[in-house]
């Protein structure tokens, strides 16, 4: 029997099965993704294409192989629901009583309600008046939705106003590398997509939120050890130009500490590639709440009950988050 | 010729790898040269290793074994030589392109389009004649290795063309690009290298020990498991893709355990448990070491695929160590064993420096151990510390440096081994051509002498 | 480079080529294989999200993802109404600017039907759908699907309030409360299919 064609068919079938699983299905599911809406405001589409300079920065990132040390994917190991009291209401005693009662639920009950530090501290002493200071404040934590809903209802019944905050958790997020996990929609308009496979350096998925200043990135590229003590990153001095100061110092010139500064009369100016790369890095944000990765963001100027469909819902602020 | 050029590329690869490794200890090393930053040197090293050494030597072995097992002559050898030249040109252009910054950004697929098409064309030239050789075989009963090699001949062009066409042309949007790149990478490193490496083991171990391969059915099982499930294991657990992809990757990676056990059992029973047999022949030593690396690497891959453990080792040096173990520790060692067996037969000569072969073996084993072990341990330490958000990142990075220093030593040992390998091969080639030249010269002068004597 | 030099050796070498014996695969290995396959299927069932592109780890099913979505509106009725409008519930036909499509979907902009002080008619439209007839002298070919099963009273009240109080669209009418929606829902329970405009005009909006 001529096994030759059989072998060919076997190899073809095997490859076809892994191809249809990982190439075809991926294209159907992820390759045809469209822009989606954030869950906080359907009028805001996500993601937006990177502006021109940042798009060029993506190519600089690719050409210099930054993805071999830096990953761009943040993981999440769980989601918790925090119950946040936003307004104290008129019947404060009832609110405090309800809070203390909710805090009493044993931690191993299926409801999974547990008090957060401010409430746990108040559990001991009966007077919980201090609880209602400094609102809005997260006071309870739950791991399942029905229990959280019931808690919010109980609190709302005492004329206070409470709401649920969705808090993703995980070691990467605890390190401040993002507010939620990275999902496919974050990379929709990038080509090539470089999620990286090593963390010789920190994850960059959300670095634009952590370090929004271009100058930070420029200094880091030129002299990493000057910017971050103990960094093992090599300097990328070829992205910059050291030249004699002309009639006036250039506005682009880097402000360098003494040990990295050029000799007197010289200045260090970023080349186009460095500026593009810095712009790309500051455009890396992964904090928009999406259906597939829900998250509660601080409702900033949402107090305006206008009837016009606004597009500027403050779903993501530009201020660096507190860690 | 394939083997010789492969050896040269191997040296280039180790040079790049060394440079990359040193950069960790002295970040300022060669920092001012754009072409030599870590981000470019590392893909250059990996690519020259994979495409410069692993693939061409694998192809050379494939052609040799297919010809031998089929009792047929290699069809159109000059075409194969042209293909090899084309391939080498492609790889050279590709490496230069990477150093210049034209990398594609996808891991293991970094060669820019112009180089990739040259490589593809070169491969087709070589593989097509391999298929023809297989077709022309006179021995119709198929041996185990032939399945593996025949499948491998087809595997590469399919995955390479798919990946390159979809990714280079920008046809695919967003995260799907990364998934396809991961798919390609797994298929290349696990399936292609696995197919050829296992074919060599199944061919040379019985041949050189003079025994029969223990079970064709075990080999069949390994073959099917490898081609069905080997290529699906590449998606990391926390990748930005829907949950079903890492889940599927995990399940298929687990099945790798059965593949590994089947192969190990087969070889073990072939030598009837007497592993000492493997130490007798210099080639067999390499094969034995390669087999051990295959087993350990395969088991490690399956263990690390568990999501719980994957979170610890995912972005650490452990994955690099594991990759090195499976690509170099397994495939390269097996290739060395095969080349040390094949080339003397090809040229009907013995190696000029037989003691260097032994030295190469010990250097290679020591180098692999020194590279893999510290990185694996360092990687686990790094991963565990990364889970704790209170430890600052720079501390963790600094903590990996001692491990990296030891692994650089391993890199150095491995590189010296490559020099020895090249010396041996070069010496043999030189001897061969010199012998031919001498005999041709003698024939020519003998003719003139006869002509003179006659006249 | 080629095996030419080995030609005479080939024939004798053929005898030296390895052969494979026919030992069977040990049963325990097959058992292990099936155990792994079974375990793998169980794992995929639990953690694989059944190939849904919307399920990302750590969530395991679409229901879990749904359960973790933030509450709509965040306390602001108009915000909730905007979200319901864009779900896409209304925006698909009536468009984001509320003007609908001429000949297909009626506009909500400056509409008398919308601005009716009592919301009885438009609540019925949202609950049971609308089809055919003429609205303010124009006929529209599109039909409106009933939303009574997909939207809660609160959501219907919010979206109607949003539409009725949308200053940009020139609408200015009193808000709609969830209780009113509930009332109308009870009253129109028996109604079998979509309304036509003529039927609705016969019912008083205060009903």
Overview of the structural elements:
The complex is a heterotrimer of chains A (323), B (455) and C (207). By secondary structure, chain A is of the alpha+beta class. Chain A has 10 helices and 8 strands. Among the domains of chain A are: 122 residues, Cytochrome c-like domain (Cytochrome Bc1 Complex, Chain D, domain 2), CATH 1.10.760; 92 residues, Ribosomal Protein L30, Chain: A (2-Layer Sandwich). In chain A, the strands form 3 sheets. In chain A, strands 4-5-3-6 form a 4-stranded antiparallel beta sheet. A two-stranded antiparallel sheet of chain A has the order 1-2. The longest helix of chain A is centred in the N-terminal third of the chain and has 29 residues. Chain B is mainly α. Chain B contains 13 helices and no strands. About 3% of the residues of chain B have low confidence. With 207 residues, chain C is mostly helical. A two-stranded antiparallel ribbon of chain C has the order 1-2. The chains are: A alpha+beta (323), B mainly alpha (455), C mainly alpha (207). Chains in contact: A-B, A-C, B-C. Chains A and B meet through α1 and α6 of A and α2, α5, α6, α7 and α11 of B.
What's a quick, concise take on this entry?
The complex is a heterotrimer of chains A (323), B (455) and C (207). By secondary structure, chain A is α+β, with helices and mostly antiparallel strands.
Topology of helices and strands:
The complex is a heterotrimer of chains A (323), B (455) and C (207).
Chain A: H1 3-31, E1 36-37, E2 45-46, H2 52-63, E3 78-87, H3 92-103, E4 114-115, H4 117-124, E5 137-142, H5 145-157, E6 161-169, H6 171-174, H7 207-210, H8 214-222, H9 224-227, E7 240-244, E8 266-270, H10 272-282
Antiparallel strand pairs in A: 1-2, 3-5, 3-6, 4-5, 7-8
Helix pairs in contact in A: 2-10, 8-10
Chain B: H1 2-25, H2 38-70, H3 77-100, H4 113-135, H5 144-168, H6 176-209, H7 216-229, H8 244-270, H9 282-304, H10 307-313, H11 317-347, H12 354-387, H13 393-454
Chain C: H1 7-16, H2 27-47, H3 62-67, H4 77-89, H5 91-94, H6 112-115, H7 120-128, E1 134-135, E2 138-139, H8 153-164, H9 178-187, H10 197-202
């Amino acid at each position: 029997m001529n096994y030759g064609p059989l072998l060919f068919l076997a190899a073809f079938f095997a490859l076809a099965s892994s191809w249809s699983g990982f190439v075809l299905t991926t294209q159907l599911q992820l390759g045809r993704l469209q822009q989606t809406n954030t869950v906080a405001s359907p009028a805001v589409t996500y993601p937006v294409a990177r502006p021109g300079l940042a798009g060029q920065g993506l190519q600089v990132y690719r050409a210099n192989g930054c993805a071999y040390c830096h990953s761009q994917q943040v993981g999440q190991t769980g989601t918790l629901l925090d119950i946040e009291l936003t307004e104290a209401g008129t019947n404060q005693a009832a609110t405090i009583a309800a809070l203390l009662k909710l805090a009493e639920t044993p931690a191993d009950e299926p409801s999974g309600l547990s008090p957060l530090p401010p409430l746990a501290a108040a559990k001991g002493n009966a007077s919980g008046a201090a609880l209602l200071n400094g609102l809005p404040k997260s006071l309870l934590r739950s791991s399942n939705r029905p229990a959280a809903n019931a808690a919010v209802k109980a609190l709302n019944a005492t004329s206070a106003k409470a709401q649920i905050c969705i808090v993703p958790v995980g070691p990467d997020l605890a390190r401040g590398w993002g507010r939620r996990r990275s999902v496919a929609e974050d990379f929709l308009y990038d080509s090539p997509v470089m999620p990286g496979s090593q963390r010789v350096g920190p994850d960059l998925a959300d670095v634009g939120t952590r370090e929004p200043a271009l100058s930070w990135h420029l200094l880091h590229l030129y002299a990493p050890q000057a910017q971050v003590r103990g960094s093992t990153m090599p300097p990328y001095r070829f992205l910059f130009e050291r030249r004699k100061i002309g009639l006036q110092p250039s506005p682009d010139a880097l402000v360098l500490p003494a040990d990295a500064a050029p000799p007197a009369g010289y200045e260090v100016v970023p080349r186009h590639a460095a500026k593009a790369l810095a712009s790309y890095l500051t455009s890396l944000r992964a904090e928009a709440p999406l259906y597939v990765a829900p998250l509660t963001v601080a409702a900033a100027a949402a107090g305006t009950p206008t009837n016009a469909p606004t597009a500027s819902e403050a779903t993501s602020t530009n201020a660096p988050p507190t860690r | 010729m394939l083997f010789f050029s492969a050896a040269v590329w191997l040296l280039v690869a180790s040079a790049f790898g060394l440079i990359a490794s040193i950069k960790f200890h002295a970040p300022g090393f060669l920092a001012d040269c754009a072409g030599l930053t870590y981000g470019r040197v590392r893909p250059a090293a990996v690519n020259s290793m994979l495409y410069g050494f692993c693939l061409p030597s694998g192809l050379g072995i494939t052609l040799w074994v297919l010809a031998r097992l089929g009792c047929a002559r290699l069809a159109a050898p000059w075409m194969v030589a042209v293909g090899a030249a084309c391939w080498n040109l492609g790889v050279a252009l590709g490496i230069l392109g990477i150093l210049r910054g034209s990398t594609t950004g996808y891991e293991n697929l970094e060669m820019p389009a112009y180089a990739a098409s040259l490589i593809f064309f070169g491969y087709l030239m070589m593989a097509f004649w391999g298929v023809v050789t297989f077709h022309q075989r006179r021995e119709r009963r198929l041996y185990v290795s032939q399945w593996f090699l025949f499948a491998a001949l087809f595997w590469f062009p399919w995955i390479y063309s798919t990946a390159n066409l979809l990714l280079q042309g920008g046809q695919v949007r967003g995260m799907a690009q990364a998934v396809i790149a991961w798919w390609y990478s797994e298929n290349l490193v696990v399936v292609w290298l696995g197919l050829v490496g296992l074919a060599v083991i199944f061919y040379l171990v019985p041949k050189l020990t003079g025994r029969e391969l223990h079970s064709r059915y075990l080999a069949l099982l390994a073959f099917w498991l490898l081609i069905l499930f080997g290529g699906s294991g590449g998606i990391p657990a926390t990748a930005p893709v829907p949950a079903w992809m890492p889940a599927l990757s995990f399940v298929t990676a687990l099945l790798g355990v059965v593949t590994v056990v089947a192969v190990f059992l087969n070889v073990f029973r072939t030598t009837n448990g007497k592993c000492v047999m493997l130490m007798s022949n210099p080639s067999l030593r390499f094969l034995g070491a390669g087999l051990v690396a295959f087993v350990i690497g395969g088991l490690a891959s399956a263990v690390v695929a568990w999501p719980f453990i994957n979170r610890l080792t995912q972005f650490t040096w452990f994955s690099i160590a594991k990759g090195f173990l499976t690509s170099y520790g397994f495939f390269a060692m097996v290739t060395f064993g095969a080349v040390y067996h094949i080339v003397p037969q090809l040229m009907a000569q013995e190696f000029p420096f037989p003691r260097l072969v032994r030295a190469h073996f010990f250097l290679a084993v020591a180098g692999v151990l020194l590279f893999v072990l510290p990185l694996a341990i360092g990687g686990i330490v790094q991963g565990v510390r990364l889970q704790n958000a209170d430890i600052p990142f720079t501390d963790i990075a600094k903590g990996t440096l001692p491990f990296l220093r030891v692994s650089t030593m391993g890199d150095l040992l491995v590189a010296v081994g490559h020099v020895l390998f090249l010396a041996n091969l070069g010496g043999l080639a030189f001897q061969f051509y010199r012998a031919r030249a001498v005999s041709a010269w003698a024939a020519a002068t003998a003719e003139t002498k006869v002509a003179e004597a006659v006249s | 480079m080629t095996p030419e030099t080995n030609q005479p050796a080939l024939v004798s070498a053929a005898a030296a080529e390895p052969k494979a014996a026919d030992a069977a695969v040990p049963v325990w290995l097959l058992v292990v294989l099936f155990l792994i396959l079974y375990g793998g299927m169980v794992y995929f069932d639990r953690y694989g999200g059944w190939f849904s592109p919307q399920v990302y780890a750590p969530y395991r099913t679409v229901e879990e993802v749904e359960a973790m979505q933030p509450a709509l509106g965040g306390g602001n009725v108009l915000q909730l109404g905007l979200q319901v409008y864009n779900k896409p519930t209304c925006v698909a036909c009536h468009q984001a600017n509320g003007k609908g499509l001429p000949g297909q979907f009626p506009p909500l902009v400056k509409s008398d039907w919308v601005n009716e002080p009592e919301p009885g008619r438009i609540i019925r439209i949202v609950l049971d759908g609308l089809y055919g007839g003429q609205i303010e002298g124009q006929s529209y070919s599109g039909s409106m699907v009933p939303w009574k099963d997909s939207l809660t009273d609160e959501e219907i009240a919010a979206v109607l309030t949003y539409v009725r109080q949308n200053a940009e669209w020139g609408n200015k009418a009193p808000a709609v409360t969830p209780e009113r929606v509930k009332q109308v829902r009870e009253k129109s329970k028996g109604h079998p299919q979509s309304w036509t405009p003529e039927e609705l005009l016969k019912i008083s909006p205060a009903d």
